[in-house]
Give the backbone structure.
Amino acid sequence: MTRNIQSMEAQMSGLGVSIRPHVKTCKSIEIARRMMADESPGITVSTLAEAEYFFNHGICDQLYAVGIAPGKLARVAELYQRGLELKLVLDDLDAAYRVVEAAGRLECRFRLLLEIDADGQRGGFAPDAHALIESADLLAQGGCRVMGVMTHMGASYDCRDTACLRRAAERERLAVVSAARHLVRAGHDCPIVSVGSTPTARFARRMDGVTEVRTGTHVFMDLVMAGLGVCRISDIALSVLTEVIGYRAGAGEWIVDAGWMALSRDRGTAAQAVDQGYGLVCDQDGKVIDDIIVRATSQEHGILALRSGKPIDADRFDVGERLRILPNHACATAGKHDGYWLIGDGQQPRRYWPRIHGW
Ligand SMILES: Cc1ncc(COP(=O)(O)O)c(C=O)c1O
């Protein structure tokens, strides 16, 4: 984990940009503090529960990087009153009206970034959209503070080669840089120009015009990232410890006590060149075992099979043997658990770091 954090920090500092780590992956103050480099402007969160938790632990500069739901603005206003510098995001003129209305009603000067669409997959204004300027004008006239633009290139997760990842990174950069120019030409300040996903950060060649990068998955890495070529399997710092509970003699498959409740239902590697099922199986020391994956899951059962479909030997494991499963998607798998057991070189858990849930 420390290596992953340092490597992303080194890469971003080489490109002259700071990281505002996305802590939705870890949801843990112990880890968030380690993800914040000296020059980090703050953190990125994905729920108000995270915002409250990290604020209670002293992190005051946060970007809530999900389009704001008007029903949450009263809670946000309370957090402002307590001193949280929470930047909100919106990508819709109607949402801007709702924010301005709430700003008047709640007597709160909301700070906002406008979300830009870089990949056509989720929300965001087109970089040259008239509604971008209209929204910024409306927010500024309504007593709110427009602080810049942000985007997230989710499509980078679907890339299949390095050229695609490099193009995605550059498209992400160009989308926000051109939107920022558009805003400045219309008379708005744009101090924050924010991009971020682990794959685009890893493959970006330049960050000119960008002020911060929001990576989150880089802290643990996962099988999807390994499949994209963003990391090696040996960089994955998160695993689910499980125990062998039986053998399906007919099928030549072993059963463990980690089902989708422990691993998540994420199948992010299904469309990649190497399908890792619901996770890749390692021995207790974290050494990958002979192409064995979790082929299927039910709530509390995981079925282990050889990727080739051939039967696994009946004497391959013992009931009670402990194994580790590497996750397809670190955010989804970590989200199934209440905390992290830290292990060092030996296998004895050293410490426990809790994490939070909820909205
Ligand atoms: C808005 C936003 N920013 C940043 C990120 C971080 O991306 P990654 O987990 O690939 O580092 C995400 C991830 O979903 C996101 O939704």
Notes: The chain has two domains: 2-219, 233-337. The longest strand covers residues 288-297.
